[in-house]
Structures are given as structure tokens and as C-alpha cells.
Amino acid sequence: MATTTRQVPMEILALGMSRTGTESIKVALERLGYGPVYHSCALNPKKDRPLWEALIARKFPADKPTATSSPLTEDSTITREDFDQILGHVRAVTEMPCAAFWAELMTAYPDAKILLVERDIDQWYRSFVRTTLCLIFAWRKDVFAAAARVGLLPSSLAGMYSALFQGYFRAPTKFEMLTNLRAVYVEHNAAILKRAESEGRDILRMDISEGWAPLCRFLKKDVPEGVPFPVENTGDQTLALCNQMRAMTMTKLIGRIGRIGLILGSVCVSSWYGWFLWRS
After folding, report:
1. How confident is the model over 126-141, as pLDDT tens digits?
2. Rounded CA gap, 41 and 17, in Å?
3. Which of 37, 75, 77, 235 is the least buried, fewest Cβ under 10 Å from its Cβ?
4. Angstrom distance (rounded) from CA 258 to CA 252
5. What pTM was computed for the model?
6. What is the mean pLDDT of residues 69-79?
7. Any stretches that span the bilayer, and where are they (predicted)?
8. What is the CATH code for 12-233?
9. What ranges do the domains of the chain cover?
10. Which residue, 64, 84, 72, 61, is CA-closest to 8?
11. 3-state SS record for 248-270
């Protein structure tokens, strides 16, 4: 849902990197009364994608070498008005693409609490490579994007996320991303912590394995009685969902190409038969 005005206050910026438990945090925050929470799983492809693509192009322009840019650099031209068009209806945000705009979001919403979920760097690296890296550089992504451009498939988010991750990790190639992942992950967390502390902002650093206690203490909420802390979007779940979606998309694409082939074949046969009758 896109809006041009803020309908509810922005209360929490959960700015941890992808694969640190962002969907679990979304569910937890909504359970504590901070819904709706904006997460990539709630992103509206038709309404939100063009707005995010414009912001990504401004922060990571194609003509700017990604090797020399930094995710720590704030784009001062990106304002609260830009974000409110996409996020005006939510009380909290988590996951990419929001995490890549952490500096701009902290400026746009100075009263929001900051939540930084961290994860052991080696565990994070393995999870990111297994579930996300393979999607960013997948050959199917380019096929689906080309099919979307000619109207064979609906617009895909894959191209948007590829541009985002390649820009944020300063990595136009898979090799460069593998090289940069750990360093950018450390930079991301350290920069958010440093800025929050320098501005006197309320910030909580936590690991998802700590459960409800630190989060509820930070937000001054009671721990939900008898409710286990959510565990969402595990590596296996992510891979299974991605494989299912790719298979469905490929099946749809093949079916549409087949129908087009059938129509073209029928037209050719009809044209030939008409020509044959005319010659006779």
C-alpha cells in the first residue's frame, strides 16, 4: 500500500541485515502491538517496486563504480517524504530494502527506536550465500526479467533486489560479493551502533536466539505468556519457497510461450492454406 502521508507514527527501525532473523522480528513486533511491520514479504510489487527502484537508483547509481561507493554514505536527497510514500501506513520496518537505507531512515524518523539484530558472522555468511547469493546471480532472474519486459510474465522483484544487493555490497559480480560480504556486514552493524550512540538514540542489540526477554525489556512490554518466540523463514524454508516460486514461474512462462507458438502456428497454417486456395 503506497501513501503520500504518514497515517501512524514510525516507532521502530529494525535495521539488521538480511538473514539475521528479520521475519521472526516482524512477527514478534506485530505480536507486541507494533503492526503492521514492513518486510520484504509484505512488499507490494505493483505499487512499491517502482518507488524502491527509484530510491535504489538514486543511492546506487549505475554510473557510479560500486567498488568505490560505501553503504555508510547517506544520500541526503532521500527524505521522509520519499519513505512515507511507501511506509506511511506502518509502525516499524525490517529487512531489505529498508536495511540498505538505514542512514536515511534514521534521519527521516529521529524519534524511532533502533533495533539491531545481529548473528554470528560465520553463520550469517553461510546462510546468506546459501539462500540469497544464489538468487542475486541466478540465470533464471535474467530470463524472467526479459519475459516481464515483453509482457510474458508479471513484473519481477528479482531485478530490483539484485541491483540493491549489488549496490550495497559494492559487488557487481559474484566473486566480488563473496569477497565483500563479511566486511560490509561488519561495517553495517558498526555504523548503525555508532550513529545511534552518537545521537543518544534508544538502541537494542540482540541475537534472535535470546527470544522475548531483551526485546520486551527494551520496549517495556510484557513477555507474551505461553507464546514461543517466532522462528520464521529458516534457510530450508527459504530455499523450498524460492524453488517452488521459480518452478511455478518457469511453468507459467513455458505455458505462455507454448500458447504463443500454437497461435503463431495456426496463423501460419491458415495463411498457407489461404495462399494454396488462392493459387488453385
Report:
1. 999 988 887 788 655 5
2. 15
3. 77
4. 10
5. 0.80
6. 79
7. 253-275
8. 3.40.50.300
9. 12-233, 234-279
10. 84
11. HHHHHHHHHHHHHHHHHHHHHHH
